[in-house]
Structures are given as structure tokens and as C-alpha cells.
């Protein structure tokens, strides 16, 4: 997308504003499928927790994607977006047996990540196809909050508990059709990923009726110029060869599944915010915008970096600014960052705002959530309206006067 297009959208729909580029989502999807074109059966389950707007789900469905859902509500959103139950994969963590039963009743594939629920569900539903999430105890990910395959992680069944797991399956005569792992997000070293894959292959040998292996995702995307990223093409070449060899050994053509979220939508997203005030202190120049961590929490939560540019003054001389929000807490998006000279009223653009940005937004300080726009075929389409005061009151129930006046 061009800066002039983003400026036009900010003027048309107001700020703050999320904008998603459909062409970038398409190119990322095609890049991933091309990298694994040597695999006979490949399935992409988009991790919808990254960005769950129904219009985005519909776009990915048209590209051929299926869904990875982590809650009953995400399952329901997927069905609402036109996915059939067999196109949705349910990979929860720490949910109740009741929620798993509810998803099962919808006909969706279930992935179980703890021994307790596995035994309970298997005892009641021994013929239902089930996938098992393994924790390979491989540390991968760019931050401790997004590294989920290590030994202290709450995710998955420890690979060291495999004998116990196998005993439960044999005792219940469960129908295990898939094995799953996810080491973490922002994977840099594909050799670590390949090492974890070998652990998954070893675990898979314990089950004779598998239909698929799910390798999770966590592919890193670049956040700034010349930033390193997961080499998808190299991973595709190496893992495809190894996966095909395992299928020959297993005696069956299995489906290879990935569940990318950030990889598909991160670079497609732009977050636009207006500068309310430029504030000079004794040591810092602050650019205060009409947003805060209620709209984009990742820099404060993960320490993530989002490239920021002043699209109102793209050719301006660069100066050092600390970009901050209007929340009544410290909400710093960038400290002493080189940005084109900023004036009050300018529009700043945050890159890589497609994944885990709007989906983690809130109404903290009773602020409204922003609108979302999809840029497709050279036009901006509003896919979520800016919230209003009525939205803040929607589910609130005032006490009757007879109670408040006591």
C-alpha cells in the first residue's frame, strides 16, 4: 500500500484505524503453500486468534485456508464466516471438558493437550477422532511469553509422559488421528524446528491410525528493514523431504498441517494514529497520539518493535521522538526513535499491525476500540465500525434507584 492511500483512509474513516492489505495476505499464503509444494497433502489452518475479523476469515477461506481455533467462540466465528466443521481445528489450552464437548457436538476436530481431559473424553467417546498435542521440550520463540514448547510450559503433554499417554489410549481404545506440536513464535533457527519435528516423528510411531501431523507455526516475519525472518523456503525444502520420508516409513500418505497466524497477516496490517501533541521536556520530545495500549499492547506486553513512520511528512528530516499514548499509565510505543519530523495533526503509521493487535485491544480508560478497513482491489472497505458510547453501555445493567438510595 502507498502512504497516500493510507492517508486517504485515515481521512475517510478517522483515526485511530486498522488497515489490512488483502494482497499481502494472499502473497504470504501463496508463499507458504509454494514452499511445501513437494508435500502431497498440505493443509493450512489459519490461527485466527491473530486476527479474527469475519471478513479476514472469509478472505482466507477463498484462498483455500482452514482454521485453527482456540475457543468455542472462535469456532462459532469460523462457522459464521462460512467454514464447514471439518475445516476447523480446535486447539485449546486449559479449557473445561464441557467446552470440548460443546465443540465436539459441532463436528469440529479436537486437539487435546492434557492427560486428565484425554482420559475423560476418551472414556466417554472412544470412537471420536482425536488429535494429541505434544510438548517437545524444545525452547523456541522470540520472547518467554510466546515460547510454548519448553519444559515449564503449560501447553501440551510432555513427551516424557508418552508411556502414560499411550496407556490411556490403549485402555480407552481411543481413535488417535493426529499428533501436534507448537514450539513458539518468532522462530529464527529452522534447525531447532527440524529437531523438534524429529521428536514429533518419534511420538507418531506409537500410533497406527494417524491421518495427519500438525507442526504448529511460529514463523518469524521481519519487523524492520533488513530484519531477519524464518527462511520459509529453506524450511520447506528440508522439512518436506523429511516428512515424505517419514510417510514412506509409516506406510501411509499423511497430511502435513501448519497453523500460521502472524506469518499470514502481520505484514498486511497498518495502524494509523493522529498526533495529538508534541511535547518537549528537558530530555525528550514526546509525540502523543490518539491511541494507547488499549489499541496496540504488543510493544508494552512483549517489547515488540513496530516500525513507525510519519506518512503526513514522508520526506521530512528525521528527529528523535518517543511515541506515547493517551492512556493513564505508561504506554510507550517507541523510545527515542528516528522518525520524520512530526507536527500536531500528523498521521503516524505503525507497520506489522495485522497480528495480535486489534485482537488484543480493550476498552481500558473507557476508550472506544478503533475501526478496521480491508484494502482490496484498490479500495478500502469498512469491515468493523468504530465503537460508540452505546457499545460501552451495551451489556451494563444499572441498579434500580430503590437499591442505590438505601
Automatic annotation (TrEMBL):
Pyridoxal 5'-phosphate binds at residues 218, 356. It catalyses: meso-2,6-diaminopimelate + H(+) = L-lysine + CO2. Transmembrane segments: none annotated. Gene3D superfamilies: Alanine racemase, Lyase, Ornithine Decarboxylase, Chain A, domain 1. Signal peptide: none annotated. Belongs to the Orn/Lys/Arg decarboxylase class-II family. LysA subfamily. This is Diaminopimelate decarboxylase. It comes from Flavobacterium plantiphilum. The gene is lysA.
